Structure formats: C-alpha cells, structure tokens
Amino acid sequence: MNDSESSTGPQRNGDVVKNTGQFIQHIAYWYSDGSIVVRVDDQTIYKIHLSMLTKLSKVMEEILTIPDNKQADDPNREGTSLYPLFIPGTTSQEFNDFLFWLYRTEWESLGDDVEKERMCTHLLKLADMWEIAAAKKYAIHALDMLYLPPSRRLELAGRFAIPDWVRPAVRRILDGKLSELKDHDICAMGWKVYSMLVNATEMLGQETRRTALVPPGMIKDPSIQCTDHASCQSVWPKLWFDRIGRDLLHPKTPMKLGGIVTKVLQDATLTHPKLSECCRLDMVLHCSRIIFADEDIVTQVSNAIIQFHATLA
C-alpha cells in the first residue's frame, strides 16, 4: 500500500482528495439542494449552489468548471461529497464570510465593528481575487462606514486598489502628529508610504514657517475710505505675526495652515487701531480666498502614494 492509499491519511489523486470521512460538513453552508461540494482546506466541506457562484464572475466560473470527461452522475466526479472540489487561495474563515455575504443581506445585524471589519476585509480580499465587482463594491462601502485608522485605510487602499481612500487618509495623518503613529501603523501602510509622509511633513513645516513670517501682500489699491494707507501697510506684518504667525508656530498646539481662513474670518483677529476698517475687510476677504500650500502638498503626496500603489498590482 502506497502513501496515497494509506487509511490514516487523505487519499489523493493529484490535487483531488477523496473524502474517506476526514471532512466535516459545514453546519450552516450545507444545503440539501446544493449542486456542488467544495472545500478550501483539509477540514471542512461545503455544499452550495453552483449557479449562484458562477454568475458572479468569469473567474469563479473558471474555478468551478468541472472537466467535461466526467459525467454529472459519476461518483468520482469532482464537486461531489466523495471528491470535493478544492478552491485554492483562501481560508475557511474567509470563505465563511464570503458565503455570509452571498446568502444573506442583513450585514447591519452583525456584532461590533471589529467583526464587521474582519468580514468586510475578507470579502474584499476574495472579491478582488475572484474579480467579483458587486462584492468588492459592497465591501468597500461597508468598510467606509466604519471607523478605520488612516494607516489601515492606506493599507487596504494599496492592497485592493482603492485610490479614493488615499487623500482623506493622508489629510488625517498630516493634520495630526506623525510621531503619534505606532510601529503597527507604519508596518500597515508600508515604509515607502511612511517615508512619503515624512517628506510631506517636512514640506508642511517649511511652508508653515514661511507663512507665519511672511504675511500675504497688502492690497495695493486701497479703498478711498482709507485715509492713511501707509499706516495700514506698516502695521500689517506685525499684526499678521501676532494673530496668525504665533499660532502657526505654537510649540505644543500649532495651528494648521488650513485653520488660517477660519481664524481670519473671526471679527477680532485682524483688528488693530492703526488698520483702517476698510483695509481690514479687504484683507479678511483676500486671506479667505488664498489656497495655502498645504492643500498642494497633500495632493502631491496623495498622488505619489496612488502611483506607488499602482505598481503593487
């Protein structure tokens, strides 16, 4: 008796494993009217509906195609209880979560967000691997409804080509402190992406310092209501630094460049006895229209990360 015929182990014919009682029928996904028996490991078998799977994508149709040289009623045919069809590239937990999506729609009744994230991520993985567009769209939407750290969103965006997640995640990270990222955050997004964020942080720091010290140019053509424009021009740099620059350079809680517009719109921010009211209103309007460089920096690093993710496909 050779090894493949040993009574103590599974009997194999190439990649086909004969069921000699070593497999356990899945308690939930064993349908009496199922048309195909499959397995994803050496423990559990599933009896499910072939037509539901093959209509999902061409890839699934190819995976589940039974060789034509086997008759439908042949007991030695793959896809039967005796010879379950093996589906590679996944685990029983991932396949269970995929079948949960396939056979049920009440995902909202799931438990906590940890369970939802696990199930949706598994669904996303298999949908991406098997090119099931509907499942991938559903998984991305469901994950987007959960709170996920930006590092996790960048990880998933890179693994499964979700470019729309990149810019919001980059914005959240750069709005905080890069030093607050933990080792697992860096490992999740990858060192290449992390190095891009480090460079972006340095660029933002340089731009913040420049903006704090160099105010927007004063309006050259003042309103006729301004009687002493020279006085307005002389006080403007100090007023900008005192009200805006100091907040940008605060050692503990610095204001982000994106917060400038909100602050200048506050009535008292740019008020000074030597600044005429008409010039104050002109500068408030002028500053509120400026697109500060942080948006350009966020866009640049986001595009760079998206391009890098594209090379991983």
Q: Could you explain the architecture of this structure?
A:
- It is a single chain.
- The chain is of the alpha/beta class and 313 residues long.
- Helix content is 51%, strand content 8%.
- It contains 13 helices and 6 strands.
- It has helices at residues 50-54, 58-63, 92-103, 113-129, 133-144, 150-160, 166-175, 183-189, 191-213, 229-248, 260-264, 277-289, 293-311, and strands spanning 11-13, 16-18, 24-30, 36-39, 44-48, 85-86.
- The strands form 2 sheets. A 4-stranded mixed beta sheet has the order 3-5-4-6, with helices on one face. The chain has a two-stranded antiparallel ribbon with strand order 1-2.
- Strand 1 (11-13) and strand 2 form a beta hairpin.
- Helix 6 (150-160) packs antiparallel against helix 7 (166-175) and helix 6 runs parallel beside helix 8 (183-189).
- It starts with 10 loop residues before the first strand and ends with a helix.
List the helices and strands and how they pair.
Elements (H helix, E strand, L loop, with lengths): L10 E3 L2 E3 L5 E7 L5 E4 L4 E5 L1 H5 L3 H6 L21 E2 L5 H12 L9 H17 L3 H12 L5 H11 L5 H10 L7 H7 L1 H23 L15 H20 L11 H5 L12 H13 L3 H19 L2
Parallel strand pairs: 3-5, 4-6
Antiparallel strand pairs: 1-2, 4-5
Helix pairs in contact: 3-4, 4-5, 6-7, 6-8, 7-13, 9-10, 9-13
InterPro entries: SKP1/BTB/POZ_sf
Protein name: BTB domain-containing protein
Q: What is the helical fraction, as a range of percent?
A: 40-55%
Structural class by sheet pairing and helices:
alpha/beta
* Rg over CA atoms: 31 Å
Mean pLDDT: 88
> Runs with pLDDT <50, length 5+?
1-13
Main β-sheet, in a few words? 4 strands, mixed
The helix/strand series, from N terminus to C terminus, equals: EEEEEHHEHHHHHHHHHHH
> Separation of termini?
46 Å
Task: Give the total of beta strands.
Answer: 6
Biggest sheet strand order reads 3-5-4-6
Question: What proportion of the residues form beta strands (DSSP E)?
Answer: 5-15%
Specify the overall morphology.
Answer: rod-shaped
If helices are DSSP runs of H or I spanning 4 or more residues, what is the number of helices?
13
